[in-house]
């Protein structure tokens, strides 16, 4: 924005400087022309007076002497035509076209003493003329050649001074425009950065009150609003976590009572109804666990976005984690469940590629475990492969299955909380497992990417060390 505003102001400043410079230079040219014209007309009038005296008494000696003196001083030629003779000085040829025309006009008693405006880069001379004589008779004509070189030199000098002054003025105005633009736009840029930070982290530091009064008021209002919203978001997140945690005790007690009640029931229908209640309690427990995990994962992701070290065991910065070792442990842990579901779970990486990550070991285990449980749950009877590999500076953990997979629109919506594919609605689950993986991956400097596996199935990858950790197309959960 600053460059665009400065661009517009620069054009306006240059136009203003050019306009002022043009006015100054035009005025200077007119002034020099007027001065030169006044001086030369006065000289021509004096020569015409001497020529009148010479025409009256018939002696041209004084006239010729004055003409030669003038031409020697100013390097300008003169032609005086009397009734019986023509006097010349300074080498001015009476037969030259412009001189002949000037003599003809003067013979008609037409004075021609106006000069064209002086131009700084012109060449050549001009002539002025007038007649002399009595009121009823023209006794002769006088023509003076005007050399404009001295005036042109003065005008060029003024152009140079004006150009230097214009450049200095433009530089000062541009510097002033830059300062004013920065003064006005800096609070706007801070506000934009604060909005982006608030969007990513849920909180932002107080904005300094700078710039025009309107922007200072806007900064104060945004700081107050961000503080209030941040407190509300933190309070809401804490409420969810506290509620999930404190509901576990009454639900646990309720489950114990249901277990005791099932021991006392003898009728088959009653026992079936009690088993249904127990199943629903287990589902509620699973949802509460997922909500609590998601609250922790979102808190961790926000702390990572804000650059704050998380206070969790084995979190970022606590050491290097061998991804192959963690993946092997989680595969061994999930293999019995895969066999029970009729699926084959294979560790596709035979040797340790030496992929070490700066992340939480507990959270890495949780992410891999969620991916494996997701594949076992939604792809029964499929072939499930788990692998870890290095691609340049990136480390990729992948869990792929040959199950039904997800469509393009489903992949795009998969990270939504409580989202489940319609065809999986009958399968027990909370719909937050992969959302948790996505948040934990972000908190540990990685990203979750889901894509189809050909010819069918789902491929879930956690990428660490990627150049762009922003969610890409097809990122989501199942």
Overview of the molecule:
With 478 residues, the chain is α+β, with helices and mostly antiparallel strands. It has 3 domains: 2-155, PAS domain (Beta-Lactamase, 2-Layer Sandwich); 213-306, Helix Hairpins, CATH 1.10.287; 321-464, Histidine kinase-like ATPase, C-terminal domain (Heat Shock Protein 90). It is 58% helix and 14% strand. It contains 10 helices and 11 strands. A 5-stranded mixed sheet has the order 6-8-9-11-10, covered by helices on one side. It has a 4-stranded antiparallel sheet with strand order 2-1-4-3, sandwiched between helices. A hairpin with a 4-residue loop joins strand 3 (125-133) and strand 4. The longest helix has 56 residues, at 2-57. The radius of gyration is 49 Å and the shape is rod-shaped.
Oligomer: single chain
Beta-strand content estimate: 5-15%
Q: What is the domain tally?
A: 3
Total helical elements: 10
Q: Tally of extended strands?
A: 11
- What is Rg? 49 Å
CATH superfamily membership of the largest domain, which one? PAS domain
State the strand order across the main sheet.
6-8-9-11-10
Second-tier CATH architecture of the largest domain: 2-Layer Sandwich
Can you give keywords for this protein?
478 residues; alpha+beta; Beta-Lactamase; Helix Hairpins; 3 domains; five-stranded mixed β-sheet; rod-shaped
Secondary structure layout plus pairing:
Blueprint: H1 2-57, H2 61-74, E1 78-82, E2 86-89, H3 97-107, E3 125-133, E4 138-147, H4 149-201, H5 213-264, H6 268-306, E5 321-322, H7 323-340, E6 344-347, E7 356-357, H8 361-378, E8 383-391, E9 394-401, H9 408-413, H10 433-443, E10 446-452, E11 458-464
Parallel strand pairs: 6-8
Antiparallel strand pairs: 1-2, 1-4, 3-4, 5-7, 8-9, 9-11, 10-11
Helix pairs in contact: 1-2, 1-4, 4-5, 5-6, 6-10, 7-8, 8-10
């Amino acid at each position: 924005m600053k460059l665009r505003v400065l661009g517009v102001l620069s054009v306006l400043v240059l136009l203003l400087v050019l306009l002022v410079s043009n006015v100054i230079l035009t005025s200077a040219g007119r002034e020099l022309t007027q001065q030169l014209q006044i001086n030369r007309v006065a000289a021509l009038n004096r020569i015409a007076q001497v020529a009148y005296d010479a025409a009256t008494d018939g002696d041209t000696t004084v006239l010729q002497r004055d003409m030669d003196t003038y031409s020697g001083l100013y390097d300008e030629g003169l032609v005086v035509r009397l009734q019986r003779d023509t006097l010349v000085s300074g080498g001015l040829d009476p037969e030259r076209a412009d001189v002949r025309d000037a003599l003809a006009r003067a013979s008609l008693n037409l004075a021609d003493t106006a000069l064209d405006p002086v131009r700084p880069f012109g060449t050549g001379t001009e002539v002025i003329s007038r007649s002399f004589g009595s009121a009823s008779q023209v006794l002769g004509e006088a023509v003076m050649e005007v050399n404009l070189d001295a005036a042109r030199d003065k005008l060029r000098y003024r152009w140079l001074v004006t150009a230097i002054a214009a450049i200095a003025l433009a530089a000062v105005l541009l510097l002033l425009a830059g300062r004013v633009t920065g003064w006005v736009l800096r609070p706007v840029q801070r506000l934009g950065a604060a909005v982006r930070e608030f969007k990513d982290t849920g909180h932002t530091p107080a904005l300094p009150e700078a710039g025009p009064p309107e922007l200072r008021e806007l900064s104060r209002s945004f700081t107050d609003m961000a503080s209030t919203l941040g407190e509300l978001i933190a309070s809401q997140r804490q409420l969810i976590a506290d509620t999930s945690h404190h509901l576990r005790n009454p639900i646990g007690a309720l489950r114990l009572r249901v277990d005791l009640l099932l021991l006392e029931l003898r009728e088959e229908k009653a026992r079936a109804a009690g088993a249904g209640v127990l199943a629903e309690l287990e589902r509620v427990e699973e949802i509460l666990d997922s909500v609590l995990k998601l609250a922790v994962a979102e808190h961790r992701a926000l702390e990572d976005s804000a650059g704050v070290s998380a206070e969790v065991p084995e979190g970022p910065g606590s050491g290097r984690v061998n991804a192959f070792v963690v993946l092997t442990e989680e595969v061994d842990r999930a293999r019995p469940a895969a066999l029970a579901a009729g699926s084959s779970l294979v560790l596709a990486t035979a040797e340790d590629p030496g992929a070490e990550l700066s992340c939480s070991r507990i959270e890495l285990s949780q992410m891999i475990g969620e991916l494996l449980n997701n594949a076992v749950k939604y792809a029964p009877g499929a072939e499930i492969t788990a692998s870890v590999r290095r691609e340049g500076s990136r480390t990729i953990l992948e869990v792929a299955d040959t199950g039904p997979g997800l469509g393009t629109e489903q992949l795009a919506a998969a990270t939504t909380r409580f989202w489940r594919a319609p065809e999986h609605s009958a399968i027990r689950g909370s719909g937050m497992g992969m959302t948790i993986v996505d948040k934990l991956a972000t908190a540990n400097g990685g990203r979750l990417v889901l894509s189809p596996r050909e010819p069918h199935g789902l491929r879930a990858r956690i990428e660490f060390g990627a150049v762009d950790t922003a969610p890409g197309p097809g990122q989501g959960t199942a």
